[in-house]
Amino acid sequence: MDASHFVHGAFLCYLWCFARLYLRTPSGRKRFNVLGALDYTTKELLTVTNLTYITAETVCQLLTVLAAQSPGIPITLLLDNARYQHCRLVQDRADALGIELLFLPSYSPNLNLIERVWKFVKGECLNGKYYPTFEGFQAGIQDCLAKIPTEHRAAMESLITRNFQLFDQEEFLQV
């Protein structure tokens, strides 16, 4: 589980050409926040969105959605160390719903698989694209998120894997 804060502004991409190209961009003052939980096995993404801030109440909303989605099945959530995820309100709601909260080590976003989804979404629907209205911007992100289990299924199968570098078997040079 993790949040992504999409800012209605320019998301640059790379292009090689002889002529200079300019990309229009909005002011970048509006944010579309998405708090999501990714199921590793089914690649299903459940989200809660808002236009203000991700808070402990938002996390509690997502916990309720998760518990309702799979009643009776034990749920373990991997979380980063955001302050709003450690508070008593979230921990009490998780205990009441029977959800185990497992916090990742500090400064290790590469261990959270949903970070790969956020990078994919930015590349798929935001890089090098201009949305003249904030509503179109939101619709583009929501459309991409809705297509994850269908059109983007092959990409998710490739992205959401347990390919991590483990240092247990590695040999290090002694200095």
Descriptive account of the structure:
This protein has 175 residues and is of the alpha+beta class. Helices cover 34% and strands 17% of the residues. It has six helices and five strands; from the N terminus they run E-E-E-H-E-H-H-E-H-H-H. The strands form two sheets. Strands 1-2-3 form a three-stranded antiparallel beta sheet, with helices on both faces. It has a two-stranded parallel ribbon with strand order 4-5. It is globular. The model has no long low-confidence stretch (mean pLDDT 87).
**Helical percentage:** 25-40%
Report the sheet with the most strands, covering strand number, pairing sense and barrel closure: 3 strands, antiparallel
Give the CATH topology.
Nucleotidyltransferase, domain 5
Assign the CATH superfamily: Ribonuclease H-like superfamily/Ribonuclease H
Number of domains: 1
| pLDDT < 50 stretches | none
Radius of gyration: 19 Å
Shape: globular
Order of helices and strands: EEEHEHHEHHH
Oligomer: single chain
- Strand order in the largest sheet: 1-2-3
Average pLDDT, all residues: 87
Number of strands: 5
> What amount of the residues lies in strands?
15-25%
User: For the terminal residues, how far apart are their CA atoms?
Assistant: 39 Å
Q: Provide a count of the helices.
A: 6
SS-derived structural category: alpha+beta
- Known CATH architecture: 2-Layer Sandwich
Q: Which CATH top level class fits? A: Alpha Beta
List the helices and strands and how they pair.
Blueprint: E1 2-7, E2 31-38, E3 45-50, H1 56-69, E4 75-79, H2 83-86, H3 88-97, E5 99-103, H4 114-125, H5 134-146, H6 153-159
